[in-house]
């Protein structure tokens, strides 16, 4: 059997678990929509650009998907599905939620791809969180017209987004996957067999 093919080909169980993760993350996003947006608004009132500190929870789906499934497309799939669930349950952003899921998932996916889908350590998870944050930032340059805002705002916003992505998506996502693996729920996956 071709090991490269088995490492990159999705099994039925991969699709099922990725779907479950996507729905679970979507529920987290939906719950975070009110809390996170209130935090974002308060931080923006304090210093414009600091709202980025609240965004990390919305980036966690791609990190968790990549860490658990460990195959091409997993980070993107889980983040987009989570965005779909959040939008279907209702939020203040509507269809833009799907664009966000796509950009954020792609940002995390590119980091896992850069490591050839072979490294799933805490530093890689934190980089994937940062990648998701950069994806969000690039999208919002256009959807939120941030390109028309000051360099100071954009510098602060990008910095806080990355910090939030590293901590709330990367660090917390890695911790959640490790905690789930300890329960035995991931024993059919490499994430359940290798504690990193």
TrEMBL record:
Record keywords: Membrane, Transmembrane, Transmembrane helix
Domain of life according to the entry: Bacteria
Bilayer-spanning residue ranges: 12-33, 45-69, 76-95, 124-144, 156-177
Pfam family, one: ABC_cobalt
InterPro entries attached to this UniProt entry: ABC_thiamin-permease_prd
Protein name in UniProt: Uncharacterized protein
């Amino acid at each position: 059997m071709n090991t490269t093919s088995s490492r990159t080909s999705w099994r039925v169980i991969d699709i099922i678990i990725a779907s479950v993760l996507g729905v679970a993350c979507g529920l987290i996003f939906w719950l975070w929509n009110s809390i996170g947006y209130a935090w974002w608004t308060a931080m923006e009132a304090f210093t414009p650009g600091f709202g980025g500190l609240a965004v990390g929870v919305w980036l966690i789906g791609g990190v968790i998907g990549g860490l658990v499934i460990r195959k091409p497309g997993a980070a993107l799939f889980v983040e987009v599905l989570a965005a779909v669930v959040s939008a279907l349950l209702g939020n203040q952003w509507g269809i833009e939620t799907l664009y966000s899921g796509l950009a954020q998932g792609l940002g995390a996916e590119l980091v896992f791809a850069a490591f050839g889908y072979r490294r799933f350590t805490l530093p890689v998870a934190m980089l994937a969180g940062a990648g998701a944050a950069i994806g969000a930032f690039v999208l919002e340059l256009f959807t939120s017209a941030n390109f028309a805002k000051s360099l100071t705002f954009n510098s602060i916003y990008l910095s806080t987004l990355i910090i939030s992505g590293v901590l709330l998506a990367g660090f917390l996502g890695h911790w959640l996957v490790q905690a789930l693996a300890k329960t035995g729920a991931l024993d059919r996956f490499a994430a359940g067999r290798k504690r990193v």
